[in-house]
Design goal:
With 959 residues, the chain is mostly beta strands. The N terminus is likely disordered. A 7-stranded antiparallel β-sheet has the order 57-58-59-60-61-62-63, with no helix packed on it. The protein contains 4 helices and 93 strands. The radius of gyration is 42 Å and the shape is elongated.
Length: 959
Amino acid sequence: MTSRVIRTTRIACALAALGASLSAQAQTGHVFCVDEARARNDAAVDDISNHTPYTNGCIRNMADGRAAVLLPSALEPMRRVPSDESLRRHAWGFLDQNGRLAIRPIFESVRDFRHGLAAVKWQGKWGFINPQGRMAVAPRYDSVGDFAQIGLAVATLDGRHLFINRQGEPVGDPLDAGIDSLELADGLPARAAVAFKPEYRSPTGERRFAAPGVAVKQAYGPDLYIATDGEYRQGLVDRDWNWVVEPVYHDISTDRDGRLAVADGPDGVVLLGTDGKVIGADQHYESMGPVGRKFWSAQLAGRKGYALLDAAGQLVATLTSEQAHASQRFHDTIVYPSGETLMALVPGQDKPLTLGAGLTPSINEEGFVLFRGETGVGLLTPKGAWLHGESAPAWLADAGDMEVRQGRLWIKSQERALLNIVDADGHALLKPEAVEATQNMELKALSVNVPGAPLGMLGQSHCQCGPAGAGLLLADGSLVTDAAWTSLTPLDADDERGGDAPLLDEGLKADQLRYAATTADGIRLLDAQGRVMDLPPQQHIGAFNNGYALVYAKGVNKMIDRAGKQYDLPAGVFDSQVVAPGVMRYVKTASADAPWGLYDFVAGKELAAPAFQEIGVFEHRQAGASLGAGRVGVIDLQGKWIVPARHHGVERVNDKLWKVMQAGGQDEDYARPVALFNDQGRALTPFISRLQIGRAQDGSVTADSDQRRWVFSADGTHALDLEDALYTRLGDWLEIRRAPRYGYLNDQGQWQIAPRAGVTSIFQGAPARALAADDSGTRLIDTAGKTVATLPAGEWDWPQGSPLLLRHYEVNGRLRTDYVEPGGKTRLTAEGATSAFSEGQAVSLLSTRAMRALDAKGTLTGPAFNALGTLRDGLAPALADMNFGFVDRHGEFVIAPDYSAVTPFLNQRAVVSTTDASEIIDPAGRALARVQMVCGVRTLYGSAGQRLWPNTMPARCDR
């Protein structure tokens, strides 16, 4: 709600002008009387603290007629206070507005007075004192915030936040454990700014928060996590976040692909097992890298060669640098020379395999490697079978071309004749008669990869010069042929796609596969062994889908199951497709807009009359269906609507959930509102534009947009509403990070307006109103959170105590500020970014970055300054050159600009500081109190220059 023009940067050259940096001050024990100011991005135009890197140090800002001061402790004899400017054995007290020591310096730390009480730290615990220095709330809390106008403060006890009243009694319900901090502001109800801890959420709903010295980075294996300690060293923790592998490593990296993690530590590089075992800790490896997916290469200490480790980190071979550089990788197999002998490291083998001398790799197909050389031809399989010499079949010498299908190697001669098929164990699968049959017939590999399924189909070659018939090449290498078959067709895969085509019906076993054999008498149904089944010859047999296939014979369409049993179809059907086991969708005419119906051909009854423009394939007894544009939904097997037909489209997410797209015109489809529905037709989310729905590896379903995020269980019965929080997956846990939120509390510690995203102001005025801004714009709300007015575009602000709201905006590139009543009436428009009025004047930030006063008519008045505050007690702080002073309403300096940090006047008092001293001054500039370093200790002086504290000075101090 604050104009970006207001968010000015600090004057960099102020550092040079002061001639000392705050870092130097810290090194010498806070010698100077200015402290480093906390950077802010919400400062108002007239907030002079935004124009200096410093704030008052030796005397803090005045609040409630008291100013905190750090002086030699009243609880220590002066002889025990070090005079070395270290501020040891100093304590905090308070001065009154006349500079007298109102509360002696006895506290370890203090906060400023607010609403009559100040937080103080005593013996390690926090409590509150009144202006007379008496304890109002006993010191027993780990930390506290200031009291707000509602009479409550936030305190921390044993790691949990709670509200307390002015008597120190708990009020309201305990705050959520996920709250990291809660700051109360003034107003009735009180504005509360809530910041959250990083949260970790388990699949069972367990909540956990970052432990001290443990920051979880990512999951590693099923039960461990990579984490860092407070010094950014990395190790492994278990599910309870206890260190399993101590954090001694500079870096732990993993590719998240199931391989071991590599850790770089002070004693070299190691591997970390998913069980927490450290591998290679005593080897001092200089580097480590993966070799393919199954091996690791570790450089030995002193670069004396390489250790080759298997996927589990076990040593399988040690290579010299020359051997390593000469090695080759074929898929996951490593081949390297050892003298004249060629060696191989094969996944799963615990030691190198000797191949022999005089061999050279010739062909590699997915880990099947063919070698040629003086000692003949050899074949190495991915499992380490070595066919060479006496173990090699004679036909291997003729190998010329190789191809891997379903994990088996098809070996052909130079003339492309099939020699045999070899599996990964090195077994030749084809019997001699099968090999012979392939010489004059064409063998086509089958694309279905089912254990025990036929390997291929035999048919006539292009020359039509082979024996009559066709055949199936079975898994055992035998051949089933029939001279009456002219061709064979697989009925369980889209074989035209090639490769490993998916099954049309998932989960089939080899004996359930079916084939169609074309004969002179018609098409016959064959089982997985090539046997003719009990089904009369057909003119057509379609592919099986959901366990059924369409057949046609003698002018009649029927359905069959895998046993060949026939099922009648209703009369007058033009087209039909199986969409569920025993159920088909059908149309009765060839018209493009002919409606679809549903028919149970097993039971022989109609399920839904033709009325649908489209019916999808059923899964888990539900399918998407349409009655036309904007009338899409989900139906069951009876044709009844589960998700009503009033949407743009639907997409299945899993067996229980649907993505539903809202109907209506959209400029871009990607912006169309989307919602998640369950299989009962209930919306689990509202319709949200650009909502992205996805599935995680653990089966859970995510729904994410810019402003809302959910994680659902796979069936949608459990939901984690993250609102606008960002999350990262750490294995099966979620790391959740929430942005700050703003809400309003009543004096009973109850949320009167629940925290929400966006920025808000305090409540003020009568009736009480507050600003609330988010991505949708800025509103004026009442104490129930109800919008009473929607405000025009711009950056809005409502300074505390101001009767008018401020609206900053641009017109033709020029900044303007409107002064607006809470009722909506604009009282004044001024050029530039201006402040609230005080004592008849405001200040304006000019385009030159200089500042001038603004009168009640909106007219600039007086000279320009580098920084200018509004009038308080007739004086305004002003920055001239590099120092602050105070000017009157005409812009004339009344108090010379001699200070590095100042506060505006309040009740005729201001606090000012140079690097050497802090003072409380009156409107005439007269110092009522001064604190500075004298003889190595902080010393308080009164208006007449008399020393007020300490009563005695350190020994050998002549002042």
